Amino acid sequence: MKPSIRSLLAVMLLTAFWLGSCGTVTITDLQQATAQFETAVAGTVTAQVPTETATPKFTQTYIPTETPVPTITETPTPSPIPPTTVMDTYCDNSAFVTDVTVPDHTILAPGQVFEKTWTLRNTGICTWKPGYIITFVKGDMLKGSARSINQSVAPQEEVNVTVKLYAPNTPGDYTGVWRLANGKGEGFGEFVSVIISVAGPGTAVPPTP
């Protein structure tokens, strides 16, 4: 029994003793004293019972699972491939430079004999030899025939090439296409042409250049 309860009991006993000494104690008085004692004890016990501390409820917090971020491997950009330089490796090649005689659309008399001359440049890597010729390809042949260049022409050099032709007797426009060929008869280089107009009756014919 704790000190506070013993103190109350002592008070109650003293009260009962005092009442007994006075000769006035009754059963009712004892019951009231007992009830008061029980109430006091109950209040004391209640006061001495420690208040239970509420245990905090555990609240579960959802922690999301971290999604792994995929590692991105950077693909190296390939270095650009430099363009391949295409070089002209043709052995035989030629380029037209200019008309020397009988420019295109020259007016000629019917049956007139003339010579057409072109200036050509050797743009290949091989030297043209006397066996190289200028030969007819298509169109109006104008009674012309293949003709040798009769000289050697080194790469990047120029040469005049001439063919002998005849104007037709019928008035009109005529075109012939010609090209160089090597000693094997293989054509090469740019095409060249002769374009003439044969005069009709009453048409003046200028002097042939």
Name the features.
alpha+beta; elongated; 2 helices; 20% helix; Immunoglobulin-like; 209 residues; five-stranded mixed beta sheet
CATH class annotation of the largest domain: Mainly Beta
Number of domains: 2
Strand-residue proportion? 25-35%
What Rg is obtained from the alpha carbons, in whole angstroms? 67 Å
Residue-averaged pLDDT, rounded? 77
Instruction: Specify the CATH architecture of the largest domain.
Output: Sandwich
Cα end-to-end separation: 154 Å
Name of the CATH homologous superfamily of the largest domain? Immunoglobulins
Topology-level CATH name of the largest domain: Immunoglobulin-like
What characteristic shape results from the CA principal axes? elongated
**Number of contiguous helices:** 2
- Helix percentage range: 10-25%
What's the β-strand tally? 8
Biggest pleated sheet: 5 strands, mixed
Please tell me about this protein's structure:
This protein has 209 residues and is α+β, with helices and mostly antiparallel strands. It has two domains: 3-48; 94-198, Immunoglobulin-like (Sandwich). It is 20% helix and 28% strand. The protein contains two helices and eight strands. The chain has helices at residues 3-22, 27-48, and strands spanning 94-99, 106-108, 113-122, 133-139, 147-148, 158-166, 172-181, 187-198. The strands form two sheets. A five-stranded mixed β-sheet has the order 2-8-7-4-5, with no helix packed on it. A hairpin with a 5-residue loop joins strand 7 and strand 8 (187-198). Helix 1 (3-22) packs antiparallel against helix 2. Mean pLDDT is 77; it is low at 78-87.
